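notes to self, project folder thing:

trying the whole complex as one job this time. last attempt i did each chain seperately and stitching them together was a nightmare. two parts in total, labels are on each line so i dont mix them up again. if this works i'll redo the older ones the same way
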Amino acid sequence: MKHHLRVRYKQAGRGGTGTVLADKKVKAVVARFGTISMKTNQPADLEALKTVTKTHAKEINTLDGKQNRMSLVGTTHLVPIMNDHDCLPTHNFKFGSHPEAAVIGEDVYEHIFDKGFDGCWRGCAVACSHGVKDFSPFTGPFKGTRVFVDGPEYETVAGCGSNLGIFDAHTILEINFYCDAYGLDTISVGTSIGFVMECFENGLITPEHTGGLELYFGNRFGALELIHQMAKGEGFGAIVGKGIRQMKQIFADKFKADPGFMQDIGMESKGLEFSEYITKESLAQQGGYGLALKGPQHDEAWLIFLDMVHNFMPTFENKAEALHWFPMFRTWFSLCGLCKLPWNDIVPEDNKDTNEPAKVMKHVQWYADFFSAITGKKTTPDDLIAMSEAVYNFQRVFNLKMGTGTREHDTLPYRAMGPVTVEEYESRQERYDKQLTDTYGMDISGMDSAARVAALRKERESQYEQLKDAVYDRRGWTKNGIPTKETVQRLGIDFPEVLEVLAANGVQ
Amino acid sequence: MIQVNDQPVEWKPDMTIADLLKQMPDVRFCSVVRVNGKLISSPRFDVTRIPDNAVIHLLPLVAGG
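result (full assembly):
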Protein backbone atom coordinates (compact mmCIF):
# COMPACT_ATOMS: atom_id res chain seq x y z
CA MET A 1 0.00 0.00 0.00
CA LYS A 2 2.34 2.66 -1.29
CA HIS A 3 0.00 5.57 -0.53
CA HIS A 4 0.24 4.85 3.19
CA LEU A 5 3.97 5.48 3.26
CA ARG A 6 3.79 9.26 3.00
CA VAL A 7 3.23 11.05 6.29
CA ARG A 8 0.58 13.79 6.36
CA TYR A 9 1.08 16.64 8.80
CA LYS A 10 -2.41 17.26 10.10
CA GLN A 11 -2.28 19.30 13.26
CA ALA A 12 -4.72 20.89 15.64
CA GLY A 13 -2.73 23.90 16.73
CA ARG A 14 -5.59 26.40 16.72
CA GLY A 15 -6.66 27.56 20.14
CA GLY A 16 -3.55 26.59 22.04
CA THR A 17 -4.00 22.87 22.58
CA GLY A 18 -0.25 22.41 22.13
CA THR A 19 0.45 24.80 24.98
CA VAL A 20 -2.05 22.97 27.19
CA LEU A 21 -0.41 19.62 26.47
CA ALA A 22 3.06 21.08 26.99
CA ASP A 23 1.93 22.44 30.34
CA LYS A 24 0.87 18.92 31.27
CA LYS A 25 4.28 17.62 30.14
CA VAL A 26 2.68 15.58 27.34
CA LYS A 27 5.16 15.23 24.49
CA ALA A 28 3.04 13.19 22.12
CA VAL A 29 -0.06 11.07 21.83
CA VAL A 30 0.23 8.02 19.61
CA ALA A 31 -2.87 6.25 18.39
CA ARG A 32 -2.96 3.01 16.45
CA PHE A 33 -6.04 1.91 14.64
CA GLY A 34 -6.96 -0.66 12.07
CA THR A 35 -9.26 -0.42 9.10
CA ILE A 36 -12.19 1.97 9.35
CA SER A 37 -15.51 0.89 7.93
CA MET A 38 -19.15 1.80 8.32
CA LYS A 39 -19.40 -0.90 10.99
CA THR A 40 -16.63 0.61 13.12
CA ASN A 41 -19.00 2.64 15.28
CA GLN A 42 -21.42 -0.27 15.51
CA PRO A 43 -24.32 1.64 13.93
CA ALA A 44 -27.80 0.83 15.15
CA ASP A 45 -29.13 0.82 11.60
CA LEU A 46 -26.43 -0.06 9.08
CA GLU A 47 -28.77 0.06 6.09
CA ALA A 48 -29.99 3.55 6.98
CA LEU A 49 -26.36 4.65 7.40
CA LYS A 50 -25.47 3.24 3.98
CA THR A 51 -28.42 5.02 2.39
CA VAL A 52 -27.67 8.50 3.74
CA THR A 53 -23.92 8.08 3.17
CA LYS A 54 -24.45 7.07 -0.44
CA THR A 55 -26.89 9.91 -1.03
CA HIS A 56 -24.59 12.54 0.44
CA ALA A 57 -21.46 11.22 -1.28
CA LYS A 58 -23.23 11.09 -4.64
CA GLU A 59 -24.28 14.70 -4.32
CA ILE A 60 -20.75 15.79 -3.39
CA ASN A 61 -19.30 13.94 -6.36
CA THR A 62 -21.88 15.48 -8.70
CA LEU A 63 -21.83 19.08 -7.51
CA ASP A 64 -18.37 19.96 -6.18
CA GLY A 65 -16.93 20.08 -9.69
CA LYS A 66 -19.62 22.57 -10.70
CA GLN A 67 -19.39 24.71 -7.60
CA ASN A 68 -16.24 25.29 -5.55
CA ARG A 69 -14.07 22.55 -7.12
CA MET A 70 -12.57 21.81 -3.69
CA SER A 71 -11.44 18.39 -4.87
CA LEU A 72 -9.05 20.24 -7.19
CA VAL A 73 -8.22 23.52 -5.47
CA GLY A 74 -9.04 22.94 -1.81
CA THR A 75 -10.32 26.16 -0.30
CA THR A 76 -8.05 28.43 -2.34
CA HIS A 77 -11.10 29.39 -4.42
CA LEU A 78 -11.95 31.67 -1.51
CA VAL A 79 -8.90 33.88 -2.12
CA PRO A 80 -10.20 35.64 -5.26
CA ILE A 81 -13.77 35.65 -3.93
CA MET A 82 -12.78 37.33 -0.67
CA ASN A 83 -10.49 39.72 -2.52
CA ASP A 84 -13.28 40.78 -4.89
CA HIS A 85 -15.63 41.39 -1.97
CA ASP A 86 -13.05 43.36 0.03
CA CYS A 87 -12.84 40.66 2.70
CA LEU A 88 -9.31 39.31 2.16
CA PRO A 89 -7.07 40.45 5.06
CA THR A 90 -4.27 42.56 3.67
CA HIS A 91 -1.53 44.28 5.71
CA ASN A 92 -2.80 43.30 9.15
CA PHE A 93 -6.51 43.51 8.24
CA LYS A 94 -6.07 47.12 7.20
CA PHE A 95 -7.55 46.47 3.77
CA GLY A 96 -9.71 43.77 2.20
CA SER A 97 -8.20 43.47 -1.24
CA HIS A 98 -4.97 43.80 -3.17
CA PRO A 99 -4.18 43.92 -6.90
CA GLU A 100 -1.74 41.00 -6.59
CA ALA A 101 -4.14 38.63 -4.85
CA ALA A 102 -4.69 36.59 -8.01
CA VAL A 103 -1.18 35.14 -7.78
CA ILE A 104 -1.98 33.40 -4.49
CA GLY A 105 -5.40 32.04 -5.42
CA GLU A 106 -6.86 28.94 -6.99
CA ASP A 107 -5.53 29.70 -10.47
CA VAL A 108 -1.99 29.23 -9.18
CA TYR A 109 -2.40 26.54 -6.55
CA GLU A 110 -4.40 24.27 -8.84
CA HIS A 111 -1.21 23.86 -10.86
CA ILE A 112 1.08 23.52 -7.85
CA PHE A 113 -0.92 21.00 -5.84
CA ASP A 114 0.12 17.42 -6.29
CA LYS A 115 -2.71 15.47 -7.82
CA GLY A 116 -1.95 12.36 -5.85
CA PHE A 117 -2.48 13.47 -2.26
CA ASP A 118 -6.02 14.43 -1.41
CA GLY A 119 -8.18 14.31 1.66
CA CYS A 120 -7.66 14.44 5.40
CA TRP A 121 -8.48 10.74 5.42
CA ARG A 122 -8.95 8.31 2.60
CA GLY A 123 -12.69 7.92 3.01
CA CYS A 124 -13.56 11.60 2.53
CA ALA A 125 -15.72 12.33 -0.51
CA VAL A 126 -14.84 16.04 -0.58
CA ALA A 127 -11.06 15.53 -0.44
CA CYS A 128 -10.27 19.25 -0.26
CA SER A 129 -6.97 18.80 1.53
CA HIS A 130 -4.16 19.09 -0.96
CA GLY A 131 -0.41 19.11 -0.78
CA VAL A 132 2.79 19.76 -2.65
CA LYS A 133 5.52 17.14 -2.87
CA ASP A 134 9.23 17.66 -3.50
CA PHE A 135 9.10 21.24 -2.26
CA SER A 136 12.53 22.68 -1.53
CA PRO A 137 12.61 25.29 1.28
CA PHE A 138 15.02 28.20 0.87
CA THR A 139 15.47 28.82 4.61
CA GLY A 140 15.69 26.95 7.89
CA PRO A 141 16.81 23.47 8.90
CA PHE A 142 15.27 21.83 5.82
CA LYS A 143 16.85 24.31 3.38
CA GLY A 144 17.68 22.67 0.08
CA THR A 145 16.06 19.32 0.94
CA ARG A 146 12.88 18.00 -0.59
CA VAL A 147 9.84 17.95 1.65
CA PHE A 148 6.09 17.39 1.43
CA VAL A 149 3.90 20.39 2.26
CA ASP A 150 0.40 19.62 3.47
CA GLY A 151 -1.63 22.56 2.15
CA PRO A 152 -2.03 25.46 2.01
CA GLU A 153 -5.71 26.11 2.42
CA TYR A 154 -7.44 29.50 2.45
CA GLU A 155 -6.64 30.54 6.02
CA THR A 156 -2.94 29.93 5.55
CA VAL A 157 -2.83 31.74 2.21
CA ALA A 158 -4.64 34.77 3.62
CA GLY A 159 -2.94 34.84 7.03
CA CYS A 160 0.61 34.13 5.91
CA GLY A 161 0.26 35.69 2.47
CA SER A 162 -1.89 38.74 1.82
CA ASN A 163 -2.07 39.74 5.49
CA LEU A 164 1.73 40.00 5.52
CA GLY A 165 1.90 41.62 2.08
CA ILE A 166 3.50 38.44 0.75
CA PHE A 167 2.08 37.67 -2.68
CA ASP A 168 4.25 34.71 -3.49
CA ALA A 169 2.73 31.22 -3.58
CA HIS A 170 6.03 29.48 -2.83
CA THR A 171 6.85 31.56 0.24
CA ILE A 172 3.38 30.75 1.58
CA LEU A 173 4.16 27.08 1.00
CA GLU A 174 7.38 27.43 2.96
CA ILE A 175 5.66 29.18 5.85
CA ASN A 176 2.97 26.47 5.77
CA PHE A 177 5.62 23.75 5.86
CA TYR A 178 7.55 25.18 8.78
CA CYS A 179 4.42 25.95 10.79
CA ASP A 180 3.43 22.30 10.41
CA ALA A 181 6.93 21.06 11.13
CA TYR A 182 7.18 23.21 14.26
CA GLY A 183 3.55 22.62 15.37
CA LEU A 184 2.43 26.22 14.97
CA ASP A 185 -1.05 27.38 14.00
CA THR A 186 -0.78 29.21 10.66
CA ILE A 187 -3.67 31.54 11.54
CA SER A 188 -2.16 32.78 14.79
CA VAL A 189 1.29 32.97 13.19
CA GLY A 190 0.03 35.02 10.25
CA THR A 191 -2.15 37.35 12.28
CA SER A 192 0.59 37.85 14.89
CA ILE A 193 3.27 38.68 12.34
CA GLY A 194 0.85 41.05 10.58
CA PHE A 195 0.49 42.93 13.86
CA VAL A 196 4.28 43.04 14.27
CA MET A 197 4.73 44.37 10.74
CA GLU A 198 2.23 47.17 11.23
CA CYS A 199 3.87 48.08 14.53
CA PHE A 200 7.22 48.14 12.74
CA GLU A 201 6.00 50.29 9.88
CA ASN A 202 4.51 52.75 12.38
CA GLY A 203 7.72 52.97 14.38
CA LEU A 204 6.25 51.36 17.51
CA ILE A 205 9.06 48.84 17.30
CA THR A 206 12.40 49.27 15.56
CA PRO A 207 15.32 47.07 14.46
CA GLU A 208 16.73 47.70 17.91
CA HIS A 209 13.85 45.65 19.32
CA THR A 210 13.66 43.06 16.55
CA GLY A 211 17.29 42.00 16.60
CA GLY A 212 17.93 43.88 13.38
CA LEU A 213 15.05 42.46 11.39
CA GLU A 214 13.38 44.96 9.06
CA LEU A 215 9.85 43.69 9.49
CA TYR A 216 8.00 45.71 6.89
CA PHE A 217 5.05 44.22 5.00
CA GLY A 218 6.20 41.95 2.22
CA ASN A 219 9.46 40.94 3.90
CA ARG A 220 9.22 37.19 3.35
CA PHE A 221 12.67 36.43 4.76
CA GLY A 222 11.83 38.43 7.87
CA ALA A 223 8.59 36.52 8.34
CA LEU A 224 10.32 33.16 7.95
CA GLU A 225 13.13 34.14 10.29
CA LEU A 226 10.56 35.08 12.93
CA ILE A 227 8.94 31.65 12.59
CA HIS A 228 12.29 29.88 13.01
CA GLN A 229 12.99 32.01 16.08
CA MET A 230 9.52 31.28 17.47
CA ALA A 231 10.13 27.56 17.22
CA LYS A 232 13.49 27.82 18.94
CA GLY A 233 12.24 30.29 21.52
CA GLU A 234 15.03 32.66 20.63
CA GLY A 235 15.41 36.32 19.75
CA PHE A 236 12.50 38.59 18.90
CA GLY A 237 10.57 35.57 17.61
CA ALA A 238 10.26 34.33 21.19
CA ILE A 239 8.22 37.44 21.98
CA VAL A 240 6.12 37.13 18.81
CA GLY A 241 5.40 33.52 19.69
CA LYS A 242 3.59 34.65 22.82
CA GLY A 243 0.79 36.00 20.64
CA ILE A 244 -0.73 39.42 20.20
CA ARG A 245 -2.25 39.86 23.66
CA GLN A 246 1.12 39.44 25.38
CA MET A 247 2.95 41.34 22.65
CA LYS A 248 0.77 44.39 23.27
CA GLN A 249 1.75 44.34 26.92
CA ILE A 250 5.45 43.75 26.24
CA PHE A 251 5.66 46.41 23.52
CA ALA A 252 3.96 48.93 25.79
CA ASP A 253 6.00 48.09 28.91
CA LYS A 254 9.42 47.58 27.37
CA PHE A 255 9.33 49.55 24.12
CA LYS A 256 6.96 52.34 25.22
CA ALA A 257 4.67 51.66 22.27
CA ASP A 258 1.23 53.33 22.22
CA PRO A 259 -1.15 50.89 23.96
CA GLY A 260 -4.28 52.51 22.54
CA PHE A 261 -3.18 52.16 18.95
CA MET A 262 -2.03 48.58 19.55
CA GLN A 263 -5.42 47.76 21.09
CA ASP A 264 -7.08 49.05 17.93
CA ILE A 265 -4.89 47.15 15.46
CA GLY A 266 -4.01 44.03 17.45
CA MET A 267 -6.31 41.44 15.92
CA GLU A 268 -7.04 39.31 18.95
CA SER A 269 -9.96 38.78 21.25
CA LYS A 270 -10.05 36.57 24.33
CA GLY A 271 -6.33 36.10 23.67
CA LEU A 272 -6.86 34.30 20.36
CA GLU A 273 -5.77 35.75 17.04
CA PHE A 274 -8.43 36.41 14.38
CA SER A 275 -8.96 34.01 11.54
CA GLU A 276 -8.74 35.47 8.10
CA TYR A 277 -11.78 37.52 7.16
CA ILE A 278 -12.37 41.26 7.08
CA THR A 279 -15.50 42.00 9.10
CA LYS A 280 -15.70 45.79 8.90
CA GLU A 281 -18.84 45.76 6.77
CA SER A 282 -20.61 42.84 8.46
CA LEU A 283 -21.95 43.52 11.93
CA ALA A 284 -23.23 39.95 12.14
CA GLN A 285 -19.75 38.56 11.55
CA GLN A 286 -18.32 40.96 14.11
CA GLY A 287 -20.64 39.14 16.47
CA GLY A 288 -19.59 35.83 14.94
CA TYR A 289 -16.05 36.60 16.04
CA GLY A 290 -16.54 38.68 19.18
CA LEU A 291 -19.18 36.46 20.75
CA ALA A 292 -17.46 33.17 19.95
CA LEU A 293 -16.59 31.33 23.15
CA LYS A 294 -12.96 30.61 22.36
CA GLY A 295 -12.24 33.83 20.53
CA PRO A 296 -12.41 35.14 16.96
CA GLN A 297 -12.66 31.88 15.08
CA HIS A 298 -15.10 31.29 12.25
CA ASP A 299 -16.06 27.77 13.29
CA GLU A 300 -18.96 29.23 15.28
CA ALA A 301 -20.45 31.50 12.67
CA TRP A 302 -19.49 32.68 9.19
CA LEU A 303 -22.17 35.14 8.23
CA ILE A 304 -20.33 37.71 6.11
CA PHE A 305 -22.02 37.02 2.80
CA LEU A 306 -25.49 36.42 4.21
CA ASP A 307 -25.20 39.71 6.07
CA MET A 308 -23.02 41.99 3.95
CA VAL A 309 -23.70 40.81 0.42
CA HIS A 310 -27.23 39.41 0.58
CA ASN A 311 -28.61 41.62 3.38
CA PHE A 312 -30.37 38.53 4.65
CA MET A 313 -30.45 39.70 8.26
CA PRO A 314 -31.18 43.43 8.29
CA THR A 315 -32.39 43.76 11.91
CA PHE A 316 -30.65 43.14 15.21
CA GLU A 317 -33.19 40.40 15.88
CA ASN A 318 -32.34 38.71 12.55
CA LYS A 319 -28.67 38.86 13.36
CA ALA A 320 -29.25 37.57 16.88
CA GLU A 321 -31.24 34.63 15.55
CA ALA A 322 -28.40 33.80 13.16
CA LEU A 323 -25.90 34.17 16.01
CA HIS A 324 -27.93 31.63 17.93
CA TRP A 325 -28.63 28.98 15.28
CA PHE A 326 -25.35 28.96 13.34
CA PRO A 327 -23.01 28.69 16.36
CA MET A 328 -25.19 25.91 17.74
CA PHE A 329 -25.19 23.91 14.53
CA ARG A 330 -21.48 24.43 13.94
CA THR A 331 -20.81 23.39 17.53
CA TRP A 332 -22.64 20.14 16.75
CA PHE A 333 -19.96 19.30 14.17
CA SER A 334 -17.34 19.69 16.88
CA LEU A 335 -19.33 17.53 19.27
CA CYS A 336 -19.31 14.74 16.70
CA GLY A 337 -15.83 15.32 15.32
CA LEU A 338 -17.12 16.08 11.85
CA CYS A 339 -15.99 18.48 9.13
CA LYS A 340 -18.54 21.15 8.24
CA LEU A 341 -17.61 21.56 4.56
CA PRO A 342 -20.04 18.94 3.21
CA TRP A 343 -22.85 20.87 4.90
CA ASN A 344 -22.76 24.21 3.10
CA ASP A 345 -19.73 24.35 0.84
CA ILE A 346 -21.51 22.01 -1.53
CA VAL A 347 -25.11 23.11 -1.89
CA PRO A 348 -28.02 21.09 -3.31
CA GLU A 349 -29.29 22.33 -6.65
CA ASP A 350 -32.80 22.69 -5.21
CA ASN A 351 -31.59 24.54 -2.09
CA LYS A 352 -33.04 27.85 -3.28
CA ASP A 353 -36.50 26.27 -3.32
CA THR A 354 -36.38 25.30 0.36
CA ASN A 355 -37.82 27.30 3.24
CA GLU A 356 -34.48 28.17 4.82
CA PRO A 357 -31.84 28.15 2.07
CA ALA A 358 -29.25 29.92 4.24
CA LYS A 359 -29.19 26.92 6.57
CA VAL A 360 -29.09 24.30 3.79
CA MET A 361 -31.72 22.36 5.70
CA LYS A 362 -31.69 19.39 3.34
CA HIS A 363 -28.19 18.63 4.56
CA VAL A 364 -29.04 19.38 8.17
CA GLN A 365 -31.72 16.70 7.87
CA TRP A 366 -29.12 14.29 6.47
CA TYR A 367 -26.92 14.91 9.52
CA ALA A 368 -29.92 14.13 11.72
CA ASP A 369 -30.32 10.94 9.67
CA PHE A 370 -26.65 10.07 10.20
CA PHE A 371 -27.10 10.55 13.94
CA SER A 372 -30.28 8.47 13.99
CA ALA A 373 -28.64 5.65 12.05
CA ILE A 374 -25.60 5.49 14.32
CA THR A 375 -27.35 5.85 17.67
CA GLY A 376 -30.75 4.31 16.94
CA LYS A 377 -32.35 7.36 18.49
CA LYS A 378 -34.75 9.13 16.16
CA THR A 379 -33.24 12.57 15.80
CA THR A 380 -34.51 15.77 14.17
CA PRO A 381 -32.57 18.90 13.14
CA ASP A 382 -33.95 20.68 16.21
CA ASP A 383 -32.51 17.89 18.37
CA LEU A 384 -29.04 18.62 16.95
CA ILE A 385 -29.35 22.26 17.98
CA ALA A 386 -30.55 21.27 21.47
CA MET A 387 -27.52 18.98 21.92
CA SER A 388 -25.21 21.87 21.17
CA GLU A 389 -27.05 24.44 23.18
CA ALA A 390 -26.51 22.57 26.43
CA VAL A 391 -22.80 22.12 25.72
CA TYR A 392 -22.40 25.67 24.48
CA ASN A 393 -23.92 27.17 27.59
CA PHE A 394 -21.92 24.86 29.81
CA GLN A 395 -18.77 26.11 28.07
CA ARG A 396 -19.86 29.70 28.66
CA VAL A 397 -20.28 28.95 32.36
CA PHE A 398 -16.85 27.30 32.35
CA ASN A 399 -15.40 30.48 30.86
CA LEU A 400 -17.17 32.37 33.62
CA LYS A 401 -15.64 30.14 36.25
CA MET A 402 -12.21 30.79 34.77
CA GLY A 403 -12.66 34.55 35.07
CA THR A 404 -13.93 35.37 31.59
CA GLY A 405 -17.33 34.69 30.01
CA THR A 406 -18.88 38.10 30.58
CA ARG A 407 -19.73 41.06 28.38
CA GLU A 408 -16.39 42.78 28.76
CA HIS A 409 -14.65 39.75 27.28
CA ASP A 410 -16.78 39.81 24.13
CA THR A 411 -14.95 42.88 22.90
CA LEU A 412 -13.19 43.40 19.60
CA PRO A 413 -10.30 45.53 18.44
CA TYR A 414 -11.80 48.43 16.54
CA ARG A 415 -10.16 47.35 13.30
CA ALA A 416 -12.65 44.48 13.19
CA MET A 417 -15.46 47.05 13.16
CA GLY A 418 -14.18 49.90 11.05
CA PRO A 419 -11.27 52.02 9.83
CA VAL A 420 -8.79 52.81 12.59
CA THR A 421 -6.67 55.23 10.60
CA VAL A 422 -7.25 58.08 8.19
CA GLU A 423 -5.40 56.02 5.57
CA GLU A 424 -7.98 53.24 5.90
CA TYR A 425 -10.89 55.65 5.85
CA GLU A 426 -9.68 57.48 2.76
CA SER A 427 -9.04 54.21 0.93
CA ARG A 428 -12.81 53.52 1.03
CA GLN A 429 -13.96 57.10 1.52
CA GLU A 430 -17.01 56.92 -0.73
CA ARG A 431 -18.36 53.95 1.25
CA TYR A 432 -17.79 55.50 4.65
CA ASP A 433 -18.97 58.98 3.70
CA LYS A 434 -22.18 57.48 2.35
CA GLN A 435 -22.79 55.64 5.61
CA LEU A 436 -22.27 58.76 7.69
CA THR A 437 -24.65 60.80 5.57
CA ASP A 438 -27.26 58.25 4.45
CA THR A 439 -27.33 55.78 7.34
CA TYR A 440 -26.60 58.10 10.23
CA GLY A 441 -27.94 61.36 8.77
CA MET A 442 -24.83 63.42 9.48
CA ASP A 443 -23.69 66.59 7.77
CA ILE A 444 -20.03 65.81 7.19
CA SER A 445 -19.19 68.75 4.94
CA GLY A 446 -17.18 70.49 7.64
CA MET A 447 -15.46 67.39 8.95
CA ASP A 448 -11.93 66.36 8.02
CA SER A 449 -11.06 62.66 7.62
CA ALA A 450 -9.95 62.28 11.24
CA ALA A 451 -13.28 63.64 12.45
CA ARG A 452 -15.13 61.29 10.13
CA VAL A 453 -13.12 58.34 11.45
CA ALA A 454 -14.16 59.31 14.98
CA ALA A 455 -17.82 59.82 14.04
CA LEU A 456 -18.04 56.48 12.27
CA ARG A 457 -16.33 54.76 15.16
CA LYS A 458 -18.84 56.08 17.65
CA GLU A 459 -21.72 54.71 15.56
CA ARG A 460 -20.17 51.33 14.85
CA GLU A 461 -19.14 50.69 18.42
CA SER A 462 -22.67 51.53 19.50
CA GLN A 463 -24.07 49.10 16.93
CA TYR A 464 -21.85 46.33 18.24
CA GLU A 465 -23.04 46.89 21.80
CA GLN A 466 -26.66 46.77 20.61
CA LEU A 467 -25.87 43.52 18.83
CA LYS A 468 -24.52 42.07 22.07
CA ASP A 469 -27.79 42.94 23.83
CA ALA A 470 -29.84 41.26 21.10
CA VAL A 471 -27.71 38.11 21.04
CA TYR A 472 -27.60 37.75 24.82
CA ASP A 473 -31.37 38.07 24.91
CA ARG A 474 -31.81 35.43 22.19
CA ARG A 475 -29.44 33.04 23.93
CA GLY A 476 -31.16 33.42 27.27
CA TRP A 477 -28.32 35.33 28.89
CA THR A 478 -28.23 38.37 31.13
CA LYS A 479 -27.14 41.81 29.93
CA ASN A 480 -23.71 40.84 31.23
CA GLY A 481 -23.58 37.83 28.94
CA ILE A 482 -24.20 35.16 31.60
CA PRO A 483 -26.72 32.33 31.11
CA THR A 484 -29.73 32.89 33.35
CA LYS A 485 -30.87 30.33 35.89
CA GLU A 486 -33.92 29.62 33.71
CA THR A 487 -31.64 28.92 30.73
CA VAL A 488 -29.45 26.39 32.52
CA GLN A 489 -32.56 24.74 33.95
CA ARG A 490 -34.19 24.53 30.51
CA LEU A 491 -31.04 22.92 29.10
CA GLY A 492 -30.66 20.46 31.96
CA ILE A 493 -27.27 21.76 33.04
CA ASP A 494 -28.42 23.23 36.36
CA PHE A 495 -25.85 21.22 38.30
CA PRO A 496 -24.98 22.53 41.78
CA GLU A 497 -21.56 23.73 40.66
CA VAL A 498 -23.06 25.57 37.67
CA LEU A 499 -25.55 27.32 39.95
CA GLU A 500 -22.73 28.20 42.34
CA VAL A 501 -20.77 29.85 39.52
CA LEU A 502 -23.84 31.76 38.40
CA ALA A 503 -24.57 32.88 41.95
CA ALA A 504 -21.00 33.99 42.44
CA ASN A 505 -21.49 36.23 39.43
CA GLY A 506 -24.73 37.73 40.63
CA VAL A 507 -27.16 35.46 38.77
CA GLN A 508 -29.70 33.96 41.16
CA MET B 1 -26.31 29.80 -26.94
CA ILE B 2 -24.74 29.41 -23.49
CA GLN B 3 -25.10 26.72 -20.83
CA VAL B 4 -26.20 27.88 -17.38
CA ASN B 5 -26.31 25.19 -14.69
CA ASP B 6 -26.45 22.60 -17.48
CA GLN B 7 -29.44 24.29 -19.16
CA PRO B 8 -29.29 26.11 -22.53
CA VAL B 9 -29.87 29.87 -22.39
CA GLU B 10 -30.01 32.22 -25.35
CA TRP B 11 -26.87 34.35 -25.73
CA LYS B 12 -26.98 38.00 -26.74
CA PRO B 13 -24.11 40.27 -27.79
CA ASP B 14 -22.68 42.33 -24.91
CA MET B 15 -24.64 40.24 -22.42
CA THR B 16 -23.21 40.68 -18.92
CA ILE B 17 -23.51 38.39 -15.94
CA ALA B 18 -25.84 40.94 -14.35
CA ASP B 19 -28.04 40.75 -17.46
CA LEU B 20 -28.11 36.97 -17.24
CA LEU B 21 -29.03 36.91 -13.56
CA LYS B 22 -31.92 39.30 -14.13
CA GLN B 23 -33.60 36.65 -16.25
CA MET B 24 -32.86 33.74 -13.91
CA PRO B 25 -35.35 32.73 -11.20
CA ASP B 26 -34.41 33.29 -7.54
CA VAL B 27 -30.69 34.06 -7.59
CA ARG B 28 -30.68 35.96 -4.30
CA PHE B 29 -27.78 33.99 -2.84
CA CYS B 30 -25.70 34.04 -6.00
CA SER B 31 -22.70 36.25 -5.41
CA VAL B 32 -20.19 34.26 -7.45
CA VAL B 33 -20.40 32.48 -10.79
CA ARG B 34 -18.00 30.38 -12.79
CA VAL B 35 -17.70 31.36 -16.46
CA ASN B 36 -15.76 28.74 -18.39
CA GLY B 37 -14.20 27.70 -15.08
CA LYS B 38 -13.15 31.21 -14.00
CA LEU B 39 -14.59 32.72 -10.83
CA ILE B 40 -16.40 36.02 -11.21
CA SER B 41 -17.67 37.77 -8.06
CA SER B 42 -20.69 40.04 -7.71
CA PRO B 43 -18.78 43.36 -7.80
CA ARG B 44 -17.85 42.43 -11.38
CA PHE B 45 -21.20 41.16 -12.58
CA ASP B 46 -22.06 44.45 -14.28
CA VAL B 47 -18.83 44.69 -16.25
CA THR B 48 -18.15 41.07 -17.16
CA ARG B 49 -19.40 40.18 -20.63
CA ILE B 50 -20.32 36.58 -21.36
CA PRO B 51 -18.78 35.03 -24.46
CA ASP B 52 -20.95 32.96 -26.75
CA ASN B 53 -20.95 29.23 -26.00
CA ALA B 54 -19.88 29.91 -22.42
CA VAL B 55 -20.45 27.27 -19.77
CA ILE B 56 -21.68 28.95 -16.60
CA HIS B 57 -22.36 27.65 -13.13
CA LEU B 58 -24.01 29.82 -10.51
CA LEU B 59 -22.42 29.25 -7.10
CA PRO B 60 -25.44 29.11 -4.83
CA LEU B 61 -23.91 30.15 -1.52
CA VAL B 62 -20.54 31.32 -0.30
CA ALA B 63 -20.09 29.69 3.05
CA GLY B 64 -16.59 30.64 4.13
CA GLY B 65 -13.75 28.72 5.69
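what i see at first glance: Strands of chain A lie at 131-135, 147-150, 268-269, 272-273.
need to look closer tmrw
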